[in-house]
Structures are given as structure tokens and as C-alpha cells.
From TrEMBL:
Bias-annotated ranges (Low complexity): 52-61
PROSITE patterns: ACT_LIKE (PS51672), DEHYDRATASE_SER_THR (PS00165)
E.C. no: 4.3.1.19
Name by which UniProt lists this protein: L-threonine dehydratase
Cross-referenced SUPFAM superfamilies: Tryptophan synthase beta subunit-like PLP-dependent enzymes
Lineage of origin: Bacteria, Bacillati, Actinomycetota, Actinomycetes, Propionibacteriales
Entry-linked InterPro entries: IlvA, Ser/Thr_Dehydratase, Ser/Thr_deHydtase_PyrdxlP-BS, TD_ACT-like, TD_ACT-like_sf, TrpB-like_PALP, TrpB-like_PALP_sf
UniProt gene name: ilvA
Region (Disordered): 1-61
One of the GO BP terms on file: isoleucine biosynthetic process
Keywords: Amino-acid biosynthesis, Branched-chain amino acid biosynthesis, Isoleucine biosynthesis, Lyase, Pyridoxal phosphate
EC class of the enzyme, as a word: lyase
An annotated Gene Ontology molecular function: L-serine ammonia-lyase activity
Length: 475
């Protein structure tokens, strides 16, 4: 057996119109550090710091109404597509309902984000447009801003965190052309947001919030009337992915006013459930930690505009595990030929994650985005297998004698168990040598048999516990 080791950190993108931002000062607005951290920011006394938009004047939540959304619709139609609403046979059969998909992944920027960005920028007067715009984005809002800038001849500076996939960064540059600059800063949306705020304060450029502005929210809300027009009636259930809450705030507000009988459910990734936390606490509350995997929806604090709109529209919130979203991404791809990014798969993933669905009812799920970097599929597959309890890792102490591996294969592995990782280093002067083994099962039911055989064998076996640091390293 020979040692096998691999794993390279993904390269940081460097391309001509893309800069990595190194802030000259360590202090952002109100003294926050512009640092690269995933956990909650704390003030000097340990209290959480709010990072919500402090440059836009406070606007009462009622600044978003069904009327502002109806007014946004013809503006948005200048640049956004009226995306198809498609009946999905797989999900309809699985739920016994009529499940329709609103294909916002088919927008020119491959997500609904163009609606809000354009609705905001097109309403700026010539003087404001002349100062240019800035935004922070995990990638999709940036593409909306980039396309809007190009259409309107406005200059844009776009701050993205280092976690933004390469595919999204490159699309921003392609869509915005010479009108935009992309600046990489920190490793969370919040880091990028603070840098954009600082830029706006320093230069006078107009900040275009990704979700927490009535004009952004009204633009995103235009998805709702479009669905009702296309369907010919309001759905019984509308399922919407949630990050900072711009999409659901707009859609739920419009539905609540125009079709209050429709139940609106927002779906957050389990590792970034900030809107659910806000509803539970009665106010936006920073999460202690955010899992950045569902990059479109990994937001640590619900918006101060979006939160009251979601609450007052009576939307319900639920979570879906990141691994479950991966399984649904793969189903969308394999069965339906739809390329969804993780956030784009949240709404349909919710259908088999405990959401109660009336048989025969009409359900609409928003497939919100399709900007998936091909290099992420390895991780998507791995997370999906783990979620389905098909992938497991073990540390096994092998006696350092000929034939030990053969006995492991013959006596412990089941007929359908597949070794996906075997990392062993022969040690001199020792009786046993440890091996790290990854096993993929054909069925989750095969796990108990494998564990029993491992337990009964003379080999020392330790299961790598899901969630442990070693497990995270492997995945
Ligand atoms: C594809 C996709 N879906 C959902 C969301 C969540 O959006 P919101 O912040 O409007 O809740 C985002 C946000 O960037 C996204 O890009």
C-alpha cells in the first residue's frame, strides 16, 4: 500500500478587471473591523454589532406595498425576462400536488436579482447616476447591478467576498464590461457590505443594497404578480428561498395584499437561518455562525426592512439542510435538466423536508438562480451522499502483516460497499498501521451491517463522526 494524499485549496481568482481589496485602515464605519471572519462581529464590549445598511435613510416598512411592486413591474420588464412557469412532473408525482417551477434561473443574469437592482438604479436621477453606484454581493446581486450599470451607462464598483465562486466573479465582469470594477474583500457578505458602505461614504457613490432597500424589495416582488398572471389564479402555496429576505419580503407583501389566501413559505439553509431567528426573536439578530455553502442565501442577519415585511405578511419560515439542498440540486440536474445553484434548489428541496402539502393543491416553487460553478459539483455530490447516509469515513488500525487488507475486503465490506478513499502509511517498528477509509454504500440500510462487522472484527475501528473537525476536513 502506498501513501495517498491530495487536496488543494481552491485558487483565489485573479483576472484583469478584478481586484483584491486590502483596506488601508482596519476600521470600517462605526469602528467595525474589516476582517475576514465568518462568525458574528462583536463590539469592544462583546455586544453584537449590527451591519445593516446605515447609509440609506431609514424607510418605514410600508414603503413597500403591492402598489410599489406593480409600479416596478413595467420598469423591470425593460431588462428582465418574463421567465417560464413550468409544471414539474417529478415533484407533482412525489407530492400529489400540482407543482410549478418559476424559472428565475433563466434570467439574463441567471437569477431574479436583476429585478431589484435595475428597479433601484433606473430610478436614480442623472446627478446620482453620475456619482456611480456601489454594491456588496455574494455574486448574484452583483450580476444584476453589473447588467443594470451597462444598460444605463452608470459606473459600478462591486464588492464580493472571497467565498464568491469563480464562475460568478467572471460573469460579473462579462455582464458589466468596462462599466464595472469587481473588488474582492473578506470572506463573508458582511465584510463586503461594510467595504461597500465605506466606499459610498468616501466617494458619494449610491449604495445599491442586495436586499434591504424598498426599491430592491419592490423589484424582487415583481416575481409574484408574474406567477399569478401565468397561472391564471393565485397558487395555494408559494415556496421562496430566503437569504437577507428581499425576494420573500416583496413576494409575500404582494400576495398578502392581493391574494391573502395563498400560504407563503420561506426556505433558509439550516446554517444561515437568519430570518427564522429574527421572527423568533422579534427583531433581526446576528447569527453566531454562518455556513457559507449556500452562497446566495448565506446571510448572517435579516434586513431591517425585509424582516417587518416578512413578519407582517404572515410568511412562515423553515430550514433545509445544506446536504439536502445538494441532493435536490442533483435531482434537478439529472431528472429535470435544470442547472440550479444551491440557493436555487432550496424551494424544491423543501417539498420533501417536512413541508405539509395538500394533495391536489397548486404549489409554486421559485428556482431563484442557476449560477453554479462546475468545480463545486464534487462537493455537492459528497454533501448529498452524506445527507443520504450513503457516505461514511472510518479510522482503522491494520495489523502490519501481509493479507490484512484482503481480509478487510473479504470479511468486513458488504457486496455493494464501495471504497472511495484509502489513505494508509506503512510504519516501521509498529504492529499496526492506521488507515483512513471512505466507504460509499448502495443503500443507507447497509450501514448497520457494516458497523456490526467492524465491531466484531479484531481491527481497531473508529468512525469519523459527522460534524467532527476531521470530517469537515475530509468533506
Ligand atoms: C439564487 C438566490 N436565491 C435566493 C437568494 C436569497 O435572496 P434574498 O436575499 O432576496 O432573500 C439569493 C440571494 O443572493 C440568490 O442569489
Amino acid at each position: 500500500m502506498s501513501p495517498a494524499s491530495y487536496r488543494a485549496a481552491p485558487p483565489r481568482v485573479a483576472c484583469s478587471t478584478l481586484q483584491v481589496h486590502r483596506p488601508r485602515t482596519k476600521s470600517g464605519p462605526r469602528g467595525q473591523r474589516l476582517s475576514s471572519r465568518r462568525h458574528r462581529d462583536a463590539g469592544p464590549d462583546g455586544s453584537p454589532l449590527a451591519w445593516t445598511d446605515v447609509t440609506t435613510p431609514p424607510t418605514a416598512p410600508s414603503a413597500v406595498t403591492a402598489a410599489t411592486i406593480d409600479e416596478a413591474a413595467p420598469r423591470v420588464a425593460d431588462v428582465a425576462s418574463r421567465t417560464p412557469l413550468e409544471l414539474n412532473a417529478r415533484l407533482s408525482a412525489a407530492t400529489g400536488a400540482q407543482v410549478w417551477l418559476k424559472r428565475e434561473d433563466l434570467q439574463p443574469v441567471r437569477s431574479y436579482k436583476i429585478r431589484g437592482a435595475y428597479n433601484l438604479i433606473v430610478q436614480l436621477d442623472a446627478e446620482a447616476r453620475g456619482r456611480g453606484v456601489v454594491c456588496a454581493s455574494a455574486g448574484n446581486h452583483a450580476q444584476g447591478v453589473a447588467l443594470a450599470c451597462r444598460r444605463l451607462g452608470t459606473h459600478g464598483r462591486i464588492y464580493v467576498p472571497g467565498t464568491t465562486p469563480r464562475q460568478k466573479r467572471e460573469r460579473i465582469v462579462t455582464l458589466g464590461g468596462a462599466d464595472v470594477e469587481v473588488i474582492v474583500v473578506g470572506d463573508s457578505y458582511e465584510d463586503a457590505f461594510r467595504a461597500a458602505q465605506q466606499d459610498a461614504a468616501d466617494t458619494g457613490a449610491v449604495l445599491v443594497p442586495a436586499f434591504d432597500d424598498p426599491r430592491t424589495i419592490s423589484g424582487q416582488g415583481t416575481v409574484a404578480p408574474e406567477i399569478v398572471e401565468q397561472l391564471g389564479h393565485a397558487p395555494d402555496l408559494l415556496v421562496v428561498p430566503v437569504g437577507g429576505g428581499g425576494l420573500i419580503a416583496g413576494m409575500a407583501t404582494w400576495m398578502h395584499e392581493r391574494h391573502p389566501a395563498t400560504r407563503v413559505v420561506g426556505v433558509e439553509p439550516a446554517g444561515a437561518a437568519s430570518m427564522g431567528a429574527a421572527l423568533a426573536a422579534g427583531a433581526p439578530t446576528p447569527l453566531a455562525e454562518v455556513d457559507p455553502f449556500v452562497d446566495g442565501a448565506a446571510v448572517g442577519t435579516a434586513g431591517r426592512h425585509t424582516f417587518p415585511l416578512v413578519r407582517d405578511a404572515g410568511a412562515q419560515l423553515m430550514t433545509v439542510d445544506e446536504g439536502h439542498a445538494c441532493t435536490e440540486m442533483l435531482r434537478l440536474y439529472q431528472s429535470d435538466g435544470i442547472i440550479a445553484e444551491p440557493a436555487g434548489a432550496l424551494a424544491t428541496a423543501a417539498l420533501d423536508a417536512g413541508l405539509v402539502i395538500e394533495p391536489g393543491s397548486t404549489v409554486v416553487c421559485v428556482v431563484s438562480g442557476g449560477n453554479n460553478d462546475i468545480s463545486r459539483y464534487g462537493e455537492v455530490l459528497e454533501r448529498s451522499l452524506i445527507h443520504q447516509r450513503l457516505k461514511h469515513y472510518f479510522l482503522v488500525s491494520f495489523p502490519q502483516e501481509p493479507g490484512a487488507l484482503r481480509r478487510f475486503l473479504d470479511e468486513i465490506l458488504g457486496p455493494d460497499d464501495d471504497i472511495t478513499l484509502f489513505d494508509y502509511v506503512k510504519r516501521n517498528n509498529r504492529e499496526t498501521g492506521p488507515a483512513l477509509i471512505g466507504v460509499e454504500l448502495a443503500s443507507a440500510d447497509d450501514l448497520s451491517g457494516l458497523l456490526e462487522r467492524l465491531e466484531d472484527s479484531p481491527l481497531g475501528v473508529e468512525r469519523v463522526a459527522p460534524g467532527s473537525p476531521l470530517f469537515h476536513y475530509l468533506v
